[in-house]
Design brief:
Elements: H1 2-33, H2 37-43, H3 55-61, H4 67-96, H5 104-116, H6 121-131, H7 139-142, H8 150-163, H9 166-174, H10 179-187, H11 192-208, H12 211-216, H13 226-243, H14 250-255, H15 259-292
Helix pairs in contact: 1-15, 3-15, 4-8, 4-11, 4-13, 5-8, 8-11, 8-15, 9-10, 11-15, 13-15
C-alpha cells in the first residue's frame, strides 16, 4: 500500500512538472506579445515585464491586412473541413471494420500504404491544378492532403472493432435494422469519444495549415487563412529588416515595427481558438485515444 502511494506521488509530481513545462512557454509567449518591443529586445523575455504595450496587436490589426476576414476564412474552412473529414473518415472506418466486407484487405492495405508513401509535391500540384483546377479557389484550402487522414481512419477503425460490442450489432440486425440504420442509430451514439478525437485532429490540422494556401493561393489574397496572412506579414517584416541597410528611408519605418513582440502576438493570434476549444473536448479526446489504440 505504501509503495502504491509513493508511486502515485512520484507519478503526479512528474505529470505536474510536464504540465508546467508545457504551459509556461505559452504564458511567456502571451506576456511577451504584450511587452514593449524595445524593452523586450533590451531585457529579454520575462513573465512580468516593466512596461506593457498593445502596439504589436495594433500593428497586426491596422496594417491594411484583414485579420478579421482571415479569421472568417479559417473558421469556415475549419468547420466545413472538419465536418467533411469526419463524415468520410467515419464511414470508411466503419466499412473496413466489417470482417465480411469484400476487398477489405486490399482497401486496408491501400490506406496503410498512403501513410508511408505519397506521390510527392510536384505530381500532387499538377493533378490539383491541371486536372481539378482548384488553384486560387476555396477548394484549394479544403481538399489537398487534409480531407482524409489514414491515421485517423485506422484509429477510428480500431475503436469500432474494440469498443462496439458485436452483440449489439447482431441484435439490431435481428430486429430488422439495415447497415445504414445500425450505423446512424447505434454505432454513432456509442462513438462519441472517437468522433470528438478525430474531429479535434482534423480541426487542428485545418486551422494550422498554411501550406495549401502558400502553394495554391497565388492571386486571391482574400482567401488567405489566418496562418497564411500571418506568414505573409512575417515575410514582409523580414524583407524590410533585410533591406533596411540598402534603403535610407526604411530604417525610420522599420523602427516603428515591433519585430520581437509582433512575432509573439502573431503566434498568440494563431493558437487562441485552439486553446479555447480544447478544454471542451479534452475528456472525449483522452478517452478516444485510449480506446481507439487498444488493438488494430
Amino acid at each position: 500500500m505504501k509503495d502504491e502511494k509513493k508511486f502515485q506521488i512520484v507519478a503526479h509530481a512528474v505529470l505536474i512538472l510536464l504540465s508546467v513545462s508545457a504551459i509556461l512557454p505559452m504564458i511567456l509567449m502571451v506576456v511577451s506579445s504584450f511587452t514593449d518591443n524595445d524593452l523586450l529586445i533590451a531585457q529579454g523575455y520575462k513573465f512580468w515585464p516593466q512596461k506593457w504595450s498593445l502596439y504589436a496587436y495594433e500593428y497586426i490589426f491596422s496594417t491594411g491586412n484583414s485579420v478579421i476576414r482571415a479569421y472568417g476564412v479559417s473558421i469556415v474552412l475549419t468547420f466545413v473541413g472538419t465536418l467533411l473529414s469526419l463524415s468520410i473518415t467515419t464511414m470508411l472506418a466503419y466499412a473496413i471494420s466489417k470482417k465480411d466486407l469484400p476487398g477489405r484487405g486490399i482497401i486496408t492495405f491501400l490506406i496503410v500504404f498512403s501513410m508511408l508513401f505519397n506521390g510527392g509535391l510536384v505530381p500532387t500540384y499538377m493533378i490539383y491544378t491541371n486536372v481539378f483546377n482548384i488553384k486560387n479557389t476555396f477548394a484549394a484550402l479544403l481538399f489537398p492532403g487534409l480531407l482524409m487522414n489514414a491515421f485517423n481512419i485506422m484509429l477510428m477503425k480500431s475503436y469500432f472493432v474494440s469498443s462496439i460490442p458485436s452483440e449489439i450489432l447482431d441484435a439490431a440486425y435481428i430486429d430488422g435494422a439495415g447497415e445504414t440504420k445500425t450505423f446512424l442509430n447505434i454505432v454513432l451514439p456509442l462513438s462519441t469519444p472517437i468522433l470528438a478525437t478525430v474531429a479535434l485532429f482534423a480541426g487542428i490540422a485545418y486551422w494550422n495549415d498554411w501550406m495549401n494556401g502558400y502553394i495554391y493561393i497565388t492571386k486571391r489574397t482574400d482567401l488567405y487563412s489566418v496562418q497564411n496572412l500571418l506568414n505573409r506579414m512575417m515575410q514582409n517584416i523580414q524583407f524590410l529588416s533585410q533591406s533596411s541597410s540598402n534603403v535610407q528611408n526604411t530604417t525610420a519605418g522599420l523602427s516603428a515595427i515591433p519585430l520581437a513582440s509582433v512575432r509573439m502576438a502573431m503566434a498568440a493570434v494563431g493558437i487562441l481558438p485552439i486553446l479555447i476549444m480544447y478544454p471542451f473536448v479534452q475528456k472525449y479526446f483522452v478517452k478516444g485515444i485510449t480506446l481507439g489504440g487498444v488493438k488494430g
